[in-house]
Amino acid sequence: MKARSGSDQEDRGYVWLDRMTHRRARLVLVVAALALGGAVFGMTRIKINDNPTRWFEADHPIRVADRELNAHFGGTYDAFLALTHEPAPYQAASYGAEVGKQLDGFRGAIRDELAALGKALGKDPAAAPAQLIEQQEQALRQTRTKATSPALRAAADAGLDVLGEAFEALESEAGNAASSDASNAASSDAGAFATALAARVHARSTAVDAAISDALAAVTAVTASGPASAEAFRAALTTKLGPSEDPARRPVATFLGTLEQSDEVWKQPELLAYLEGLQRHLGEQPAVGKSNSIADIVRTVHRDLVSGADADYRIPATATIVAQSLDQFLSSHRKDLLWHFVTPDYQRVAIWVQLRSGDNRDMEAVTKAAASYLAAHPAPVKLSHPEWFGLTYINVVWQDKMVSGMLNSFAGSFVMVLLMMVFLFRSVLWGILSMIPLTLTVAVVYGVIGLIGKDYDMPVAVLSSLSLGLAVDYAIHFIARARDLVRLHGSWDLARAEMFGEPARAIARNIIVIGVGFLPLLLAPLVPYQTVGILIAAILLLAGAASLALLPALIAVLQRVLFTGSPKKS
Predict the structure, then answer these.
(1) CB-hemisphere CA count at 13 Å for 255?
(2) By the 8 A CB rule, do 109 and 122 touch?
(3) pTM, full prediction
């Protein structure tokens, strides 16, 4: 046996390691198995997350500015959610049936509203004509303001038309006198006036009913002609009905205007309200500072047009008022801003979400919150699959590709290194044995990362593949020398004492030199460099220690299998 060289303390350490790995080989393997089990548990707790801003140290000016800006504003990290209307395939028959159904709804609403107006006129027959008209006008204007459908709004307009005509007739009877005097002059028989006004309302209801019946007949005729598209259908219907100054035809004109806007789905109040609900849900997420959409533009303009009070900061009741609000916005000096939130055909909208955190897991939480809301609250119309975009979301996509890519890279590198070990040692068993310290090392390091809560980010992912080629060198050195010494001495029991002399000392010093050589990266200004330094050093040091402790224990247990047929050198 060769004489040992080096300090006595160092020699005693190698002697102790030799005896422990030989006499307590199974205990070493049990400890390694327990470490592997703990590592697997730790790896299940790994959180995949990245944030390029966190690549700078906490006191770096960029990090300080990031904290301050996100504390005082809605958020500096942008993401956008696009929702697209997916129209049903056009069929003339089904489209015509739907148009007829909507038009019939108009007729029913107007008929009911005018009937209610006629009854209201008979409740106070003693009221002065002007007072009677004013009372009913106020009631109809309230109905019009609160109307939740174009049909109700058209019904209120029809009633207001009748009252307006009655008031004009009242003024005509009094000549050019003031309206109040005209009222008194013409109110000698208030009851007769109320009766006459009720008859006028009934006549208008009959005329409107007839006009809508004509329009329904036109819908049937246009449907039978089979227009090629919804636009062609509406154009044919408008042409067939033609323009008219008849007051009874005004509800039909209102319906045609509503029909023209029906394809501009993101002008519909119910869809804007749906958008508002989705934004409210997203705003409940801790990372979301605020969000903006076309719904916010409509509410803001509507408030300013009506009164400026917060009570009017709401979605208007009808698509017509929504369209008027948007027209007002388009006449402003920031008109192009609208097209950041909706396409000109009003088929696709975008919600601008501002996050106070650039962490990918926060962005993922927001996308999951949106998906859960869309699944639990179906939209009034069919929407295609929601699409996210923006820099913050791009980081999430990049992270997914990076993680899956690095896992594939690690698996490929592991297989390649294993094959190289098999070819190097000309033995599958020795090739697998050489990979065990490396496998345990990588598992333990990543298990610790999961247990301490360190994010699995880009630098950590890259290191898994980078460390393979470096850390396996110790196992190659140990196994190659061990096999040579066994061939020289005839058995592992005779060779191990010399193995823990000069070879073990060379491996240990190589471990220290290479492992410690990466520690200066801890002084780098960027956190990824620091991460590379500490993890590479940890992997190399731990892989070297595992090679010196685990390999001799494995060889001691498996030596009869490993060294079968190994001849002794002469």
Answers:
(1) 31
(2) no
(3) 0.74
Share of the chain above pLDDT 70, in %: 92
pLDDT single digits (tens) 325-378: 999 999 888 888 999 999 998 999 999 999 999 999 999 999 999 999 999 999
Residue found by looking up tokens 């699959």 in the block: 385
Q: Pairing relation of β-strands 455-456 and 47-48? A: parallel
**pLDDT at residue 17, as a whole number:** 81
- pLDDT tens, 506-555? 888 888 888 888 889 888 888 888 888 888 888 888 988 998 989 999 99
Nearest alpha-carbon partner for 513 in 535, 537, 548: 537
Residues with Cβ < 8 Å from 400, sequence gap 6 or more?
A: none
Residue 475 has pLDDT above 50, yes or no: yes
φ, ψ of residue 348 in degrees (nearest 5): -140, 130
* pLDDT tens column, 159-169: 787 777 777 77
SS3 per-residue string spanning 198-232: HHHHHHHHHHHHHHHHHHHHHHHHHHHHCCCCHHH
**Nearest 10 degrees: Cα torsion 371, 373, 374, 380:** -170
pLDDT interval class at 89 (50, 70, 90): confident
Provide the H-helix boundaries in 426-526.
428-452, 458-489, 492-499, 502-517
| pLDDT, position 171 | 66
> Which pair of tokens denotes residue 127?
């009221």
Do residues 460 and 53 touch, judged by C-beta distance below 8 A?
Answer: no
Dihedral angle sign, alpha carbons of residues 226, 228, 230, 236: negative
Domains and CATH numbers, the chain: 8-51+416-562 (1.20.1640.10), 77-85+266-395 (no CATH), 92-262 (no CATH)
Separation of alpha carbons 22 and 28, rounded Å: 9
How far is the C-alpha of 394 from the C-alpha of 383, rounded, in Å?
Answer: 23
Q: In terms of pLDDT, which residue wins out, 45 or 17?
A: 45
| CA proximity to 79, closest of 374, 368, 461, 380 | 368
Cα(23)–Cα(26) distance, integer angstroms: 8
Number of CB atoms found within 10 A of residue 249's CB? 20
